[in-house]
Write the structure tokens for this entry.
Amino acid sequence: MDHRLSNRLLRLAVIFALIGMGLGYWMGASRDFTAAPVHAHINLLGWVAMALYGLFYRILPQAAHGRLPQVHFWTALVGLLIFMPALAAELVGGPAWASFAHIGLIAGPTLTLLSMAVFAAIVFRATRPLTAAV
Ligand code: HEM
């Protein structure tokens, strides 16, 4: 059974958990909550969503076959890697970062939303009554 996609997602999920929780820890220690939305989104899109994706492909490994799951993986990862710095730039970057924030807050969430749309198609395909394994 090929668990490469699931492994990649689960490893990324715990890395994002460490980053997101580390940011939360720093916010509490410094009592500066300006970046709270970045913390929330790294934890929810990086840790929770990636872990759920990884567990889904673990439970239904046949769903990880083909090109669509690769599109799902890369749009989710690249989307988050654009979205988070752009959100941070918007919240704490000041006017010098406004253009980057503006472009990133369109490009990042577009990819993130696209990744969920692709995942929705994968879930529907894998859970069709005739093809679902469980
Ligand atoms: C070591 C673990 C964590 C620490 C130290 C931590 C710390 C914090 C702190 C200090 C805040 C700001 C509170 C405020 O604005 O008054 C916060 C907000 C928040 N955290 Fe965490 N957190 C942790 C883990 C998580 C996890 C695992 C999630 C989600 C899966 C999460 C989701 C959120 C959300 C949704 C907010 C509200 C953000 C907002 O108001 O914009 N946190 N956290």
The mean pLDDT is 96. The chain has one domain: 4-126. The CA atoms of residues 4 and 64 lie 9 Å apart. Residues 21, 24-25, 27-28, 33, 36-37, 39-40, 43-44, 47-48 surround protoporphyrin IX containing FE (CB under 6 Å).
